[in-house]
Amino acid sequence: MKILVTGGTGYIGSHTCVQLIEKDWQPVIIDSLVNSKISVLDRIQKITGTRPSFIQGDVREGDLLK
Fold it and tell me: Minimal CA–CA distance to 48: which of 20, 13, 8?
């Protein structure tokens, strides 16, 4: 099952994504990368063997969420 994780490349969000992947969920990360780096996706993949889907943007952008 897919789940949207806002701020998924931040500290808490990335750890949440690792846990979700380990439970067979498919996180879809949306993050503006203001306080984090895209390289976090590489680390998540290295830990879990799965690279989560990623959308760069801000959850306050209504059109993006559609």
Answer: 20
